[in-house]
Amino acid sequence: MDHQASRRQFLRTGLALAALVGNGLPFGISKARADSFAALSRPFLANIMLNGGPDMRHLLMPRFSAVTGSYGREFWRARASAHGADDVATVLEQRWNEDYLPVADGATEFGILKQAAWLHEMWTAGKVALVCGVLNDSSRDHELAIRSMEMGNRLADKFTFGSGWGGRLAQATNSNVIALTTSPRRFSFGPNPDAPDNLSLVDNRRMIPAANMREIALAEAAPDSDYYGFDDKLKRGLKQYYAERRATINKHSVYAQFFEHERKLRELGAVIDARLATVPIPPAIEALFADTSVTGYDLALQTRNLYDALACNDLLDVRIASMDFNGWDTHNNQREEFAASATALFGSDGALATLYAALAPAVRSNVVFQIGGEFGRQLAANLGGGTDHGEGLVTILIGDAVQGGVYGTMFPESEIARLGEESAQIQGVNAIDHVFGRVAEWVMPGSKAQVFPNAAGAPLEAGLDLSGMFRA
Asked: Tens digit of pLDDT for each residue in 44-62?
């Protein structure tokens, strides 16, 4: 693989991966080379943040009813403009019949937006858990709510910063978390190992930034390259310079660590490049880049990154991945905008369906996607054909290891009386401490207390049992 060398590229890569410092490669990263996609024998969590606060009630609508006063009629009436429809029973019923795929969990009947065909397929297979009424932040402020969600700290205020629950989970599992986004999300930030219960402290030694897994290595001149070419001279010169400085610099110098960074980055890149040279990109994943008007380049790249990270999971000792997807703040034109986002992520040819199909059964059996935004939306649509910020949200879990079903009350009857109230919102009653704490327990039994130390006393809907969300 040819990597264009530049001082800017080296500094960017070096600073991004500076966390990988210690004696040798960090935390189980191996120099051994395998010749194919690695086996995955442990639970692997892919956390996907939907920035903007997705209206999951638009994705998962209650069954329409023509009976005045029923939930299925009054909620559809309150949401009519978000569906680009008039409040006419026959029009709304047509929207239900044409654009939703009906499903049920016991007495709870609802529909999945047809653009999310793969989500519907996985639900039908019993591999989707929908956790309703999830409570994170109540401020309705994007920046604060995203930070609270990624830290797993719903009590955070605008001055609260600290580690992420993915980073704390990596600490609990004695493994690493890989950040597949352009810039690492706070979800991936680890705790200080000397004070793991102090949520305000950060230590990123267990985080591996990988915005592009196939360009993670430092530049090397190929054996058959142009010896006198400027690029090749720069590549050889940098490698020789850092090797020489590393050998001659005083080991107690503050700069010695920087030259050690270069060595470890070069070793890590060689290991990853060697593995991925034996793992071709599946044609269906490559095809995601062909028409980025559907999936978008960033989501396509993260999808490929996750495939590559799973292929290298043994080399990197990763059990948690961090991803995101923008475009869910649908104050206006929700019908069209939400459909486009749902197609890209949950569609039959979308990112998740493509990745899932590309993974061998033995690999995907240990992968779970955990998907949600920073907050929910309001009960009723606004005048712009969308919905405004609210509180309660839905967390979606997808995977072979998931015990499918609805967890929590999906459509509380008490909402009918509040539909006419100004800014009435979906209420959050199930704290992220318990919901994500259960996810953490699946990844590593006994880890909830370390990952969510403030779970005691956090609210949980009466009678809700989250212990069965994963298959035994």
From this structure: 999 999 999 999 999 999 9
For residues 378 and 388, give the distance between their C-alpha atoms in angstroms, rounded to a whole number. 6
Distance, C-alpha 119 to centroid of its chain = 16
The angle that helices 142-151 and 165-173 make with each other, rounded to 10 degrees, is 10
With 0-12 / 13-18 / 19 or more C-beta atoms within 10 angstroms meaning exposed / middle / buried, residue 21 is middle
Q: Can you list the domains of the chain with their CATH numbers? A: 7-58+110-451 (3.40.720)
Q: Quick one: pLDDT at residue 1?
A: 42
H or E element that contains 49: strand 44-50
**Residue 133 belongs to what H/E stretch?**
strand 128-135
Closest CA to 45 of 390, 416, 422, 322: 322
Q: What's the pLDDT at 34?
A: 53
Over residues 22-38, the pLDDT tens digits come to: 334 444 455 555 568 99
pTM of the model: 0.91
Classify each residue of 219-249 as buried b or exposed e, where b means 16 or more C-beta atoms within 10 Å of its C-beta: bbbeeeeeeeeebbebbbebbeebeeebeee
Residues 6+ apart with CB under 8 A from 252: none
User: Each residue of 351-381: pLDDT tens digit?
Assistant: 999 999 999 999 999 999 999 999 999 999 9
Residues 6+ apart with CB under 8 A from 420: none
**Sign, Cα dihedral of 78, 80, 81, 82:** positive
The span from the CA of 153 to the CA of 454, in Å, is: 8
